[in-house]
Structure formats: structure tokens, C-alpha cells
């Protein structure tokens, strides 16, 4: 391959890069935004896909890609944009997303937290991985709280992405029209 590394990254380097980018977080954010803006789909489809991915990132049980693809398919979103939208959920943001989901779920279920926080035997439940024991005190509130938070943030990201797509395409159309005007060619329709 032309652009392959001579010495491939090891497991530690790949994990480190996943958790902390080589250059900066702003560069990674610009990379993801360019990837989304350059998708060949309608602004609604791309924005709906991103919104589906953001919605799926709030759920505690994993399966984010499956949830994002299902929601994206139902609302006529782009599947690639849905996959990119799930990038909101990453190891740095999962504690915030899941903590907010848990607190929102407890609020919706009208259950008050005990003074000492989560159940005292939470470590034991996590060690044994008993889904039935985890469902009531932890996973049920998180799942119920994920729905309204996912909808709110999904709608916010839908609006931002739709506006960004429309602006990006309008600027691109103007650039192409200027370039075509200088050369005397016709502007292709998108």
C-alpha cells in the first residue's frame, strides 16, 4: 500500500488514539463534521441519521449502531450519518450520558435516591453480571431516562446538522457557479 505505516500501531497505541486523538479534539471534530457535510444525501436524510445516532448514544445497553440504524430507517435517515452520529457516545462522554439518563429515569419514575446513592451491593451485581438484578435499580431508570434525553439532543443535533448541510451546499453551489462563470461552463445541479 502506498500510505501504509512501516511499523503498524500496537494495541496500546490504537487504544490511546481512540481515547485521546493524536492531534487534538478540535481537529477530530472538524474531521467528523466534514465527513457528515460531504455525504451524498438530502439534508433531511443526513440530519435525521445524525439525530438517530445521537439518540442511540444515550442508551446504556450498547447496541448503539443497531438502535441508530433502526431509528434512522424509520425516520428516513442516512445510515452512514447514523453511524457517525453515534460518535457522540465515546468513552469520555459515556459517564455523562449515562449519569444524566439514570438521574432523568429516576425523576420520571418518581423514585428518590437513597442518601448513599446507588444500591450498596452494586459492585456485587456488576461482578456477577446478573441482568435481572441490574434491571430494576440501574438499567430500567437509565433506559427510561435515555428516551427523553435522546429525543431532546437528537432534535438539537438534527437542527444543527440540517442548517449546516443547507449552508454548506449553498456555499458550494456559489463557488461552483463562480468557477463556472469564469470558465464559461454550466453549473451541474446537485
From TrEMBL:
Bilayer-spanning residue ranges: 45-75, 144-165
Keywords recorded for this protein, A-Z: Membrane, Transmembrane, Transmembrane helix
KW Transmembrane helix (keyword) present: yes
Pfam families hit by this protein: DUF2062 (PF09835)
Segments forming domain DUF2062: 27-173
PANTHER family: SLL0298 PROTEIN
Protein name: DUF2062 domain-containing protein
Species: Mesorhizobium helmanticense
Taxon lineage: Bacteria, Pseudomonadati, Pseudomonadota, Alphaproteobacteria, Hyphomicrobiales
Amino acid at each position: 500500500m502506498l500510505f501504509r505505516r512501516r511499523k503498524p500501531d500496537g494495541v496500546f497505541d490504537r487504544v490511546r488514539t481512540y481515547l485521546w486523538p493524536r492531534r487534538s479534539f478540535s481537529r477530530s471534530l472538524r474531521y467528523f463534521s466534514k465527513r457528515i457535510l460531504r455525504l451524498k444525501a438530502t439534508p433531511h436524510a443526513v440530519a435525521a441519521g445524525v439525530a438517530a445516532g445521537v439518540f442511540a448514544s444515550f442508551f446504556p445497553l450498547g447496541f448503539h449502531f443497531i438502535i441508530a440504524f433502526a431509528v434512522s430507517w424509520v425516520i428516513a435517515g442516512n445510515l452512514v450519518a447514523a453511524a457517525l452520529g453515534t460518535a457522540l457516545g465515546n468513552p469520555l462522554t459515556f459517564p455523562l450520558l449515562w449519569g444524566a439518563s439514570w438521574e432523568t429515569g429516576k425523576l420520571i419514575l418518581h423514585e428518590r435516591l437513597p442518601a448513599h446513592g446507588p444500591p450498596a451491593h452494586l459492585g456485587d451485581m456488576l461482578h456477577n453480571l446478573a441482568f435481572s438484578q441490574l434491571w430494576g435499580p440501574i438499567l430500567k431508570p437509565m433506559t427510561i431516562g435515555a428516551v427523553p434525553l435522546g429525543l431532546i439532543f437528537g432534535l438539537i443535533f438534527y437542527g444543527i446538522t440540517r442548517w449546516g448541510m443547507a449552508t454548506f451546499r449553498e456555499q458550494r453551489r456559489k463557488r461552483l457557479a463562480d468557477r463556472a462563470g469564469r470558465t464559461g461552463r454550466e453549473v451541474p445541479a446537485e
